[in-house]
Amino acid sequence: MSRPARKKAARKSAAERSVEIADAACAVALEHGLYAVTLRGVAAQVDVAPALVAHYEPNMDALVANTFGTIVARELAEVGELVAERESPRTRLALLLETLLDGSRDDVTLIWVEAWALGRRNEALAERVRAEMDDWRTFLQAIIEAGIASGEFETDDAASVAWQVLGMIDGLNAHALVSWEDSGDRGTRIGHAVEGMLGLHRGVLAEP
Amino acid sequence: MSRPARKKAARKSAAERSVEIADAACAVALEHGLYAVTLRGVAAQVDVAPALVAHYEPNMDALVANTFGTIVARELAEVGELVAERESPRTRLALLLETLLDGSRDDVTLIWVEAWALGRRNEALAERVRAEMDDWRTFLQAIIEAGIASGEFETDDAASVAWQVLGMIDGLNAHALVSWEDSGDRGTRIGHAVEGMLGLHRGVLAEP
DNA sequence: TCTACTATTGATCACACGATCAATAAGTTG
DNA sequence: CAACTTATTGATCGTGTGATCAATAGTAGA
C-alpha cells in the first residue's frame, strides 16, 4: 500500500504545493483525526519530506488550526446550501437536525471533539474553534429568527436557543462517536426537545 | 513551587503507594486533563521516580482508563446522592439539570471530552467510557421511569430520552469548555427542551 | 548556454513519551 | 545481629514529536 522508499518529489510551484499540503492535512484529519496532523503524517500523505511541510507552514499549531477551520467551514457551507432549498424556517430546521444527526458526518464530529480538547494547548486552534462555533450559531440563529418573524417559532432569545440546539447536536454526535450501538435512533426525539424550546406543538417539526 | 531536586521517597507499603498513585493520577487529570496523566506527570505529582509509577501500573493506558473511571464514577455518586434528597421525579430531574449545567464541574467535562477523543487510541479507556456512559444512562432512566409511573412524564422510550438528555448536557458543557463567554445562561432553556421530550407543559420543570 | 532562484531534502537537535532492568537501600523476619 | 524481602531508583533504550539548516537539484530567465 504505502511506499516505504520515496525517490523524489516532483517540483511544483509554491502556491500549488501549499494547497496540496493543506488538502493533505484535511485528508489526514478526516481519516485519522486532528491528532494525526503531524509533520511526518502530513508529509507521508503528500509523499514528501517532513521538512517540506515545515517549510510551508509557520508551525504545526497553525496548520492544525487551519485544517480544523477549513473542514468545519466547508461543512457549514454544505449544510447551508442543502437547507436553503426548503421553504419555511420550520422545514429548514427539521432538515438541519436530520442531516446533522444521521451519522453521515461522524468524521467531522471527531474533528470537533478533538478540537475542544486540543484547544486547551493550541491557542490558535482555540480561537478558530470559537470563531467557527460563532458562525454556526449565527447561521442557526437566522433560521430561528425567520421562524419568529413568520410566527412559527416562539422564543425571546433566538441566540440562546441556537446556542443550545447546537450543543445538543454536538453532544449527541459525540456520544454516538463512542458507543455506536445506540446511534440508530439519535435524532428521533430531539425534535420534541427543539419543539419545547420553540413553543411548538409536539410532533410539528416532523410534519412535511 | 516545584521541587526540582528530589532527595528520596519515603518507603511505603505497596497498597498505600498504589492508592497514592491512583489519587495522584486523578489530581493530575482534574487539574490538567487526561493527556497530562503520563508516567512523568504522575510521578512528579507523587514526588517519586517515574519508574515507580510504571512499577505499580501494568501500563499507562490502564492507569488513564482507571483514572477516568474513578473520576466519573465519583461524580455520578455525588450527583446521585444530591438528587436523592428531592421528592418527586420532576424536582429530581430539575435539580440534576441545574447541578450538571452550572459550570461547577468543568474539570470533569474536560475529562469526558478528552476521553471521547483518547478512546480511539486507548481501547481500555474506550471500554470504560462506554461503561460509565451506560451507568449514567441507567441512573437518569430510573428517574424518568419513576416520573412515568407517577404520571408526571410522558414518553414511550425512557432509555432513549435519558440518552438524549445526557447528550444535550454533555454537548452544552463541552461548548462552554471552549467559549466560556456565553456559558452563563446554559441550563435556563434546556428545561424547555426536556419538557418537550417528556410531554410537560412549558416552564413546569422550573417550578418549585 | 549560463546564471540566479528556489523547491526540496537529509541530517540533526532537543524534548517527551512508555517501558525495562540491574542496583540499592529501607524494612522485616529469623 | 544477620539474612531476607521488596520498595525505590538511575540509567538507558526506542519511538515520535516539532524545528532548523546547509546542501542539492530542478526551473526559469538573461
Automatic annotation (TrEMBL), chains A, B:
Taxonomic placement: Bacteria, Bacillati, Actinomycetota, Actinomycetes, Micrococcales
Q: Which InterPro entries match?
A: BetI_C, Homeodomain-like_sf, HTH-type_TetR-like_transc_reg, HTH_TetR, Tet_transcr_reg_TetR-rel_C_sf
Q: Which organism is it from?
A: Agromyces salentinus
> SUPFAM superfamilies this protein is in?
Homeodomain-like (SSF46689), Tetracyclin repressor-like, C-terminal domain (SSF48498)
Give the protein's recorded name: TetR family transcriptional regulator
Q: Which residues form the HTH tetR-type domain?
A: 21-65
Keyword Repressor annotated: yes
The residue ranges of the BetI-type transcriptional repressor C-terminal domain are 89-180
Q: Which UniProt keywords apply?
A: DNA-binding, Repressor, Transcription, Transcription regulation
